[in-house]
Amino acid sequence: MNRSILNILSVGAAAIAALFFMAPRAKADIIEVESATSCPGSLGGGLCNGAQPFLLSQLLPLLSQPGSIGAGTQKYVVFNDIGNSFTFTLQSNGQNNTGIANNASCQINGGATSLFNGCSIVGANGSSTSLGTTQINGLTFPATITFSGGSGLGSTFILGFVSMQGSSSITTGVPEPSSLGLLGSGIFGFLGLAGLRRRQTA
């Protein structure tokens, strides 16, 4: 091979390599549950509340501070004191402050498959995805995230926010168990009072 052909091939290879490195990388907002790690942990491997898992009912309000979920990956070891299913709303400034994520999916990984069997994401514009289906391209915020299963309550697992774009926070979650208990007590008390009044007027 002569020298000019080698030079052309070298320049071509360099151009292809440059295009590869300059090409935009696919980014994704992945919300997942996975097997728990031991405490204490790390932000990317399962952060704990000191040496203990976070209570899920307490972690969701903690993540309501603006920007509490940063770009990249954050994972939390949690004890589920909410229920077999739990839902929260995620707000984010999205990719490049557009309020939209490039793409998004929910996942159930590792041993968490024995706790949960379903997850979904519903964007502000109604676009949705669920476990094992096509990701949402162009997720608009706020987005509603739900995990459901038959054995989630009382279990310990990781709640993860993986490859997040921009900064995010949780704007709403399910009521805490104590709130649900108070609500239930109030309803039963009201029904009992109504029944007592009926008996007195009869």
Report on the structure:
By secondary structure, the chain is of the alpha+beta class. The protein has helices at 3-22, 56-62, 177-201; strands spanning 29-35, 54-55, 72-79, 86-92, 100-108, 118-122, 128-130, 136-140, 143-148, 156-164, 168-173. It has one domain (25-172). A hairpin with a 5-residue loop joins strand 6 and strand 7 (128-130).
H and E string: HEEHEEEEEEEEEH
- Give the overall average pLDDT: 82
Percent strand = 25-35%
- Termini distance? 109 Å
Q: Identify the overall geometry.
A: globular
Q: How would you characterize the largest beta sheet?
A: 6 strands, mixed
Number of strands: 11
What is the alpha-carbon Rg in Å?
Answer: 24 Å
The quaternary state of the protein chains shown equals single chain
Helical residue percent band: 25-40%
The tally of helices reads 3
Class derived from helix and strand content: alpha+beta
Our count of domains comes out at 1
Strand order across the largest sheet = 2-3-10-1-5-8
Low-confidence segments: 11-26, 178-199
Summarize the structure.
The chain is of the alpha+beta class and 202 residues long. Helices cover 26% and strands 33% of the residues.
Secondary-structure map:
Elements: H1 3-22, E1 29-35, E2 54-55, H2 56-62, E3 72-79, E4 86-92, E5 100-108, E6 118-122, E7 128-130, E8 136-140, E9 143-148, E10 156-164, E11 168-173, H3 177-201
Parallel strand pairs: 1-5, 2-3
Antiparallel strand pairs: 1-10, 3-10, 4-9, 4-11, 5-8, 6-7, 6-9
Summary tags:
single chain, 202 residues, alpha+beta, six-stranded mixed beta sheet, five-stranded antiparallel beta sheet, 26% helix, globular
